[in-house]
Amino acid sequence: MRAELWLLVLVLREAARGLSPQPGAGQDAGRGSGGAVQGTTVQGWNRRAREIPGQVSEPDRTQLSQDLGGGTLAIDTLPDNGTRVVEDNHSYYVSRLYGPSEPRSRELWVDVAKANQSQVKVHRILSNTHRQASRVVLSFDFPFYGHRLRQITIATGGFIFMGDVVHRMLTATQYVAPLMANFNPGRSDNSTVAYFDNGTVFVVQWDHVYLQDREDRGSFTFQAALHQDGRIVFGYKEIPMPVLEISSSQHPVKAGLSDAFMILNPSPDIPESRRRTIFEYHRVELDPSKVTSASAVEFTPLPTCLQHRSCDTCMSSDLIFNCSWCHVLQRCSSGFDRYRQEWLSYGCAQEAEGGTCEDFQDEDSSSSSPDSSFSPFDGDLTTTSSSVFVDSLTTEGLQNNLSPKTKGPPLHLGTIVGIVLAVLLLAAIILAGIYINGHPTSNTALFFIERRPRRWPAMKFRSHLNHSTYTEVEPSGHEKEGFVEAEQC
Q1: Is the pLDDT assigned to residue 341 strictly greater than 90?
Q2: How remote is the C-alpha of 344 from its chain's centroid?
Q3: Distance of CA 261 to the CA centre of its chain
Q4: By CB neighbour count within 10 A (0-12 exposed, 13-18 middle, 19+ buried), where does 171 fall?
Q5: b/e per residue 41-76 (b: at least 16 CB within 10 A)
Q6: Is 28 exposed, middle or buried (0-12, 13-18, 19+ CB in 10 A)?
Q7: 4, 27, 246, 275: least surrounded by Cβ within 10 Å?
Q8: Is beta strand 175-180 parallel, antiparallel or unpaired with respect to 254-266?
Q9: Which H/E stretch holds residue 444?
Q10: What are the protein's UniProt keywords (predicted)?
Q11: Residue 11: is its pLDDT beyond 90?
């Protein structure tokens, strides 16, 4: 009887041992999934670690987690205090975040101090002011959301404005922001805003910059690199405090990418003018809690409809976007990009409904079509040149691309006579002004002095104390070559 009881105890012990999990297995799995989805709401997708075929997962290895549904980025802490490389798909970009212990983080950092100093520019005004922005022309065409840009605007607040129309609310959209915050480079002599361009990569570095009224928390050093192939890299060298603790009451605090398109609508106040309205069609937001020292984020661009140059490749595209071909513009688009105003103005949305490439081929091939580089904005940009900045090279190229039909009829004799009279009238006014200035006691001068207005009109400006407004500075004559890495005390 005793032997039978002993045998029953042994059988139950072996059964219990077979049912119990391996030590640490459940703990590691719970940490991997729970930490990855923290702060994100993605329905139907679970973040999982990518396993490389033929390799065995080891406790001291870093792992790659992937979330095909998009969302914010996260660094997952492993039991050995390692980090995961987190990958997210954002439709337009695939982002990979590398933790402090990843070798890739150090590889992505561009050491501006060791670069060719003839290619490094320290912007003197941006390095000594607060809430200022300056335009810079790139040496190459940078593809941003499928649009090729040659001009960007660097801001002191830790971001790059990528829009064509420069306005005061640059923080709203169309930005590349490694860390947008209320930085004031003018608070310290060691703070600089520099950029480096070697023809294949353009790097903007905010070096030892301090937060406005938070200098006691330490200096920040980070950079944004725009590569010629469209990749965008955020490098973080020194982040002295948690980003979540940075106040956003006076300035937005965010990190990521954004793009928008602009629509012109009739203004209800002025009948003959049109109002610009900016619509943001895509944004990538990084989790601020994961922006730490010695980390990096790499954005790899995904194919868009704009890359297709023919109707066949456009209509047969297997992209996630609903690509359609506009025969009038000779462009492939989803209708949601910076060319949306053209897409609507030329009726491309109606043309794409039920149309096939064979239908377009049957049309008269000799019919004229507008140039793809022409934008409906161009007709109004000249009337609002104070708020729109156009590169001279782009303007010359646009004029050369216009067809002879758009040059207008030749000038008639009456037009020439009118121009000559206008020039003579202007010369007479200038000469009269010179005479009055040289003879202040003459009858003519006294005549105008007696009839001058007693009170000159004054322009009133509203103060935006609670808004992060930026003022553009002139880029020419305010830069110096060389980059000196300041030592941190």
Answers
A1: yes
A2: 24
A3: 13
A4: buried
A5: eeeeeebebeeeeeeeeeeeebbebbbeeebbbbbb
A6: middle
A7: 4
A8: antiparallel
A9: helix 443-450
A10: Glycoprotein, Membrane, Signal, Transmembrane, Transmembrane helix
A11: no
The pLDDT confidence band at residue 395, using thresholds 50, 70 and 90, is very low
Query: What is the secondary structure of 122-140 as a DSSP string?
Result: EETTGGG-SSEEEEEEEEE
| Burial (Cβ within 10 Å: 0-12, 13-18, ≥19) of residue 85 | buried
Tokens 């943001």, located at residue: 280
Tokens of 155: 């801001």
Give the phi and the psi of residue 159 in degrees, each rounded to 5. -150, 165
**Nearest of 67, 119, 251, 263 to residue 177 by alpha carbon:** 251
CA-based nearest residue to 184, from 136, 126, 244: 126
What is the rounded distance in angstroms from the CA atom of residue 411 to the CA atom of residue 422? 16
More confident residue, 241 or 372: 241
Q: Are strands 147-155 and 64-67 parallel, antiparallel or unpaired?
A: unpaired
Confidence of residue 272 (pLDDT cuts 50, 70, 90): confident
Q: Which of 131-140, 351-360, 401-410 has the highest mean pLDDT?
A: 131-140
Query: What's residue 78's pLDDT?
Result: 33
- Residue 266 and residue 237: Cα distance in Å, rounded? 47
Name the phi and psi angles at 301, rounded to 5. -70, 145
User: What does the pLDDT read at residue 129?
Assistant: 94
Query: pLDDT category, 187, cuts 50, 70, 90?
Result: very high
Q: Encoding tokens for residue 390? A: 């156009």
Separation CA 348–CA 325 (nearest Å): 8
pLDDT at 297: 97
Beta bridge partner(s), residue 265: 275
Collapsing DSSP to helix, strand or coil, 102 comes out as coil
Q: What is the mean pLDDT of the chain?
A: 73
Residue 488 gets which letter from DSSP?
P
Q: What DSSP designation does 21 have? A: P
Burial class (CB within 10 angstroms; exposed 0-12, middle 13-18, buried 19+) of 155: buried
Model confidence at 426: pLDDT above 60: yes
Region of residue 203 (phi > 0: left; psi between -120 and 50: alpha; otherwise: beta): beta
Q: What is the rounded end-to-end Cα distance, in angstroms, of the chain?
A: 81
- Beta-bridged to residue 257, according to DSSP, are 176, 284
Task: Report the DSSP pairing between strands 120-123 and 192-197.
Answer: antiparallel
**Using one digit for the tens of pLDDT, what is the confidence trace for 435-453?**
877 777 777 766 666 655 5
So what's the pLDDT on residue 38? 33
